[in-house]
Write a structure and sequence with these properties.
61 residues
């Protein structure tokens, strides 16, 4: 996956999240949960895109 693709996806996700937060009326707690879920999903996607998530499968806790 190219760096340009990653940057475009991050920009698109940020704009969509901003539009949802700005123009869809909802409770503040729901917005906080939505933002947290999106940030966690993006972080996991980035870890997978850079190959760091696959290398952590061998770690046993």
């Amino acid at each position: 996956m190219s760096l340009l693709t990653i940057i475009v996806v991050l920009i698109v996700a940020g704009v969509i999240l901003w539009l949802i937060n700005s123009y869809i009326p909802m409770d503040g707690k729901i917005k906080t949960i939505l933002n947290a879920v999106v940030v966690i999903a993006i972080v996991l996607w980035l870890l997978k895109a850079f190959g760091l998530l696959d290398s952590m499968k061998g770690i046993n806790v």
